[in-house]
């Protein structure tokens, strides 16, 4: 009796599995489509009909409304049905995926849970499978009802109707017929439009590159699934591509001129589009004229209207080691978790206001064009051509584009509402990116974490290029306005120009007055001669009269010139009034820049922290006094009190270190001896460096003093030294025997700072002082530190450069600060 004991399972468990694992009708249909893909089908047809019944060939043919899926895959034999389809959660695909082996059609299966068959219960109650393999002469039919899985019976007691049909040898494939639809309204009207749109998003958007064909029809009428076809692609204003080859991330950016249109359409039409952007391209790529925002990785050849009208092409690459942060154990060593080869593309569209369609014959209307874009909006992840939820679906912003939209770093960056894109992975190359059982995203792992870091690096690079292009355009507008004499560009030069005109006018005024007197005298003499009785009026010619008229006009003109020159001579008074107003504006803008470097939050934080520290210190002292009045107090309490006092003191030192940087201290300038200042900065960083066995070495060849604000100078050193500390820590993680060191050298008016790390990445060496330039992984740095350093040093009249000297890794590594203008002469 005991030998017959065994487990069984209630049918309700199966029903619960299907309900929990399959969230909606789109997911259910996609699971069935994936089954066709795994069966090596070339195509799958989906026919939806809510008003008619299936033909008499099917077992359930007496209920209105059905969904029929048909493919030309390998099909199943009776043995396959009994040993695979009817065994819940059995999956022959699981071993194939784990071993990376291919089917005969060179596909690694997408499924591996053995639960795809349960998806049918999300759609309807009555299910029939009709299937056959090529070397048999029969089709096998299997019909059952999900209502029988009601929990009142065991799984083995569920009724299954089996039949066979004859067929020709060589025919193969599978039909899945679903009737007694759970929610017929999903398949008609506006609800069906939503379903069709969502289904299209789950299928690879580039129709030409889909792994196999998906055909949809309603009551026999073909329904087009939206696709990112070539005509829609031509309307993109930006094309951004990534290719990760397993070692390096390659990024290519193509930008059209109308991406730069912005709100100033007048300037765009008159200045930019007039020469197809050629003059602006030359400015954009000129390091001397466009110092702040120049793009050094732009293809040197001007594209103009070539390549679908793209304006320029930008290319760059990043090594995997510079992006990834997460590791796994392989054997006895720790290695970075490599997610495998993948690629992707993002297309950006302008769907604001009126759209100028150059390909009108491909779209019924502007409205049709906008509908196609909106239906495809989002950056989705596809595995072998099939979408992975929730990425890019239902407004899922997994790339956090809307978050960046509110930050200063991406004011001109990508917007989630007007881009269509995909990341394409495969089972062959990306088996380490495992999907969750409910098909709702990747299982979190070092591999998926590094995958997301790579894609976010791609986005940050796009935003960086867009930022610089748009900011460069703003600078270009100012340069053009300045060259035309309008009040933009250098205000100092404008004031100087006004004063020069006033001075020249003052010098010219006496000459004009003298000329006016002479001309008046000559005019009177000529007129008197003509009017004289001695002059024969008969001899008066038209030329004589013209001379008189000319002299009269010349007198009037000189009078007007005299008025204008007198007004010009008074311009210096206006300039004297305007100059201080402009200087005030400059100071206010300067203050704003400084506050951006440190932030209002830091001021409030410092103030509150100091208040709290004072309160804690006062209360601790009070408690200590009271305890001394008592007897038999445990010594541990006194030790704790000393610890608190020490902690408060150390924290106060840290806060006071930053206090000179605060705005209420910034206006104060003082004479600072560099050797003493560096000793203070060194003391602050010593505690950080001792933790990594690091050392700061200072060399003073010729000490000097500068007149500057101590807070600003502190920011300069902090940013440079913190950068060094970050990269030295990174290097030490990969080499335990490495001993970090930072070197500071003072020589006359020069300060040189370097470390014994890897040096500056060659890809950013030329643009290291530009905002948002960094080789740190996404989330660990925004690339503002050295930009702020340069701004501060320039405000002191100094200059910072990255010297061309190279280290043992053939990289530039020495920062040199020239403070000659701020130097205090002995």
From TrEMBL:
Keyword Kinase recorded: yes
Enzyme class, spelled out: transferase
InterPro entries: HATPase_C_sf (IPR036890), HATPase_dom (IPR003594), His_kinase_dom (IPR005467), Sig_transdc_His_kin-like_C (IPR004358)
Positions of transmembrane segments: none
Positions of the Histidine kinase domain: 604-823
SMART domains, A to Z: HATPase_c
Catalytic activity, reaction form: ATP + protein L-histidine = ADP + protein N-phospho-L-histidine
The UniProt record lists the keyword ATP-binding: yes
One GO MF term attached to the UniProt entry: kinase activity
UniProt KW keywords: ATP-binding, Kinase, Nucleotide-binding, Transferase, Two-component regulatory system
Signal sequence coordinates: none
Top-rank taxon: Bacteria
Enzyme Commission number(s): 2.7.13.3
PANTHER family named among the record's database cross-references: C4-DICARBOXYLATE TRANSPORT SENSOR PROTEIN DCTB, SENSOR HISTIDINE KINASE
Protein name per UniProt: histidine kinase
Organism in which the protein naturally occurs: Arcicella gelida
């Amino acid at each position: 009796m005991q030998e017959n004991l065994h487990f069984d399972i209630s049918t309700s468990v199966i029903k619960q599995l299907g309900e929990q694992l399959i969230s909606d009708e789109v997911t259910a249909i996609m699971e069935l489509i994936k089954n066709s893909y795994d069966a090596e089908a070339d195509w799958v047809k989906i026919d939806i009909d809510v008003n008619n019944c299936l033909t008499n060939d099917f077992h359930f043919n007496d209920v209105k409304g059905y969904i029929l899926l048909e493919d030309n895959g390998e099909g199943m034999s009776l043995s396959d049905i009994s040993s695979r389809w009817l065994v819940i959660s059995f999956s022959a695909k699981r071993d194939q995926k784990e071993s990376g082996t291919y089917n005969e059609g060179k596909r690694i299966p997408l499924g591996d849970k053995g639960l795809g068959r349960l998806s049918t219960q999300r759609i309807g109650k009555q299910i029939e499978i009709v299937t056959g393999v090529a070397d048999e002469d029969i089709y096998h039919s299997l019909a059952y009802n999900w209502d029988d899985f009601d929990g009142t019976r065991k799984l083995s007691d569920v009724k299954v109707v089996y039949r066979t049909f004859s067929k020709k040898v060589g025919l193969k494939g599978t039909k899945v017929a679903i009737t007694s639809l759970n929610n017929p309204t999903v398949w008609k009207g506006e609800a069906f439009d939503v379903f069709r749109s969502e289904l299209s998003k789950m299928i690879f958007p580039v129709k030409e590159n889909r792994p196999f064909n998906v055909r949809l029809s309603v009551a026999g009428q073909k329904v087009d699934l939206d696709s990112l076809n070539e005509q829609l692609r031509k309307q993109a204003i930006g094309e951004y591509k990534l290719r990760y080859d397993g070692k390096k991330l390659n990024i290519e950016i193509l930008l059209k001129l109308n991406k730069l249109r912005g709100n100033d359409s007048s300037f765009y039409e008159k200045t930019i589009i007039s020469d197809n952007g050629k003059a602006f391209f030359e400015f954009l790529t000129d390091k001397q004229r466009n110092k702040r925002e120049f793009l050094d990785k732009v293809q040197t050849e001007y594209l103009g209207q070539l390549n679908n009208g793209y304006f320029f092409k930008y290319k760059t690459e990043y090594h995997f080691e510079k992006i990834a942060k997460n590791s796994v154990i392989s054997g006895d060593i720790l290695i970075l978790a490599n997610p495998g080869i993948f690629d992707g593309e993002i297309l950006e569209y302008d769907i604001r206001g009126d759209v100028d369609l150059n390909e009108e014959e491909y779209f019924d209307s502007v409205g049709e064009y906008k509908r196609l874009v909106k239906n495809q909006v989002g950056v989705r992840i596809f595995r072998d051509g099939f979408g992975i939820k929730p990425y890019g679906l239902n407004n899922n912003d997994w790339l956090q584009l809307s978050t960046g939209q509110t930050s200063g770093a991406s004011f001109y960056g990508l917007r989630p509402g007007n881009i269509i894109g995909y990341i394409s992975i495969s089972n062959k190359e990306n088996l380490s990116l495992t999907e969750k059982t409910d098909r709702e995203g990747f299982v979190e792992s070092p591999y998926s974490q590094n995958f997301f870091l790579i894609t976010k690096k791609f986005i940050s690079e796009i935003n960086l290029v867009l930022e610089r292009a748009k900011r460069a355009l703003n600078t270009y507008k100012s340069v053009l306005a300045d060259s035309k004499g309008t009040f933009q560009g250098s205000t100092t030069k404008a004031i100087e120009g006004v004063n020069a005109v006033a001075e020249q006018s003052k010098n010219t005024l006496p000459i004009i007055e003298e000329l006016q007197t002479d001309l008046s005298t000559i005019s009177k003499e000529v007129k008197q001669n003509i009017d004289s009785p001695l002059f024969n009026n008969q001899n008066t010619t038209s030329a004589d009269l013209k001379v008189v008229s000319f002299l009269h006009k010349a007198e009037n003109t000189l009078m007007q010139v005299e008025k204008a020159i007198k007004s010009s001579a008074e311009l210096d008074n206006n300039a004297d009034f305007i100059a201080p107003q402009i200087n005030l504006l400059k100071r206010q803008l300067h203050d704003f820049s400084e506050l951006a470097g440190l932030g209002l939050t830091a001021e409030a934080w410092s103030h509150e922290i100091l208040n709290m520290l004072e309160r804690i210190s006062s209360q601790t002292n009070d408690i200590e006094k009271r305890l001394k009045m008592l007897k038999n107090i445990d010594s541990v309490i006194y030790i704790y009190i000393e610890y608190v006092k020490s902690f408060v003191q150390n924290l106060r030192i840290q806060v006071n270190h930053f206090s000179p940087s605060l705005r209420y201290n910034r206006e104060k300038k003082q004479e600072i001896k560099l050797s003493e200042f560096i000793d203070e900065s060194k003391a602050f960083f010593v505690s950080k460096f001792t933790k990594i066995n690091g050392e700061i070495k200072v060399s003073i060849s010729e000490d000097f003093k500068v007149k500057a604000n101590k807070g600003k100078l502190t920011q300069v050193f902090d940013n440079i030294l913190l950068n060094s500390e970050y990269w030295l820590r990174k290097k030490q993680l990969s080499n335990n025997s490495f001993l970090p060191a930072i070197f500071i050298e003072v020589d006359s008016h020069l300060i040189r700072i370097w470390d014994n790390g890897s040096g500056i990445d060659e890809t950013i060496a030329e643009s290291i002082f530009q905002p948002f330039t960094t080789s740190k992984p996404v989330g660990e740095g925004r690339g503002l530190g050295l930009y702020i350093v340069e701004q501060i040093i320039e405000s002191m009249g100094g200059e910072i450069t990255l010297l061309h000297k190279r280290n043992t890794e053939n990289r530039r590594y020495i920062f040199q600060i020239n403070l000659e203008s701020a130097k205090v002469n002995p």
